[in-house]
Amino acid sequence: MNKQFFTENRVVYRAVVAAGDPWMYEVKAGQYFRIVDLEGNQAVDTLFYNAQDHSERYSATDTIREQGNIYLTTGSVLQSNLINPMLTIVDDTCGRHDTIGGACSAESNTVRYAIEKRSMHSCRDSFLTALGKCSCNHDKPMTKADLSSNINFFMNVPVSPDGHLDFDDGISAPGRYVEMQAHMDVLVLVSNCPQLNNPCNGYNPTPVEMIIWQ
Ligand SMILES: [Zn+2]
Ligand SMILES: [Zn+2]
């Protein structure tokens, strides 16, 4: 990977994803994909697919095993379920990203918080909303079976010595970003997490910016 210096004239796509919204887009091989935590303390739940064959997708277990580390940061190679490198994190001003905690859902909201939280917005529902609207997969529509273990960018989920997961206060801050370079054409599916019940978003979901440059 040859890290280039970012300049505005290299930008090919740029969009702000509002608090709680889904987003889906294709990043071409060789391009850089930057996620900016505009206001800080926002969790960005993300899935990656091989744009030509959606059955090849990001694999948390293969990524963790291959790098020998449960946290993601600069140098982490995001592996597919076929053990192909999909993207490499080339820059990271936050320093820690989770890939164990999973995406929030109506079910987890009910179990973790309260039965009345069932109707609240969740990442799983946002993923499905985005898949339903996307024309990129009309040849072979994607369904909930295509939702596998995701990355939670900017989310701080330390694993304690006794093996339990803590959903801790974020360590990100306004303007921090993570940037990766794609090794293949990747379809990116994001839920800008709408979670209001734990500190991953500071109990207040905020917008993020997506920048693709080459
Ligand atoms: Zn999340
Ligand atoms: Zn969520």
Automatic annotation (TrEMBL):
Residues 16-187 form the DUF1989 domain. It comes from the Bacteria. PANTHER family: RE64534P (PTHR31527). This is Urea carboxylase. It comes from Thiosulfativibrio zosterae. The lineage of its organism: Bacteria, Pseudomonadati, Pseudomonadota, Gammaproteobacteria, Thiotrichales.
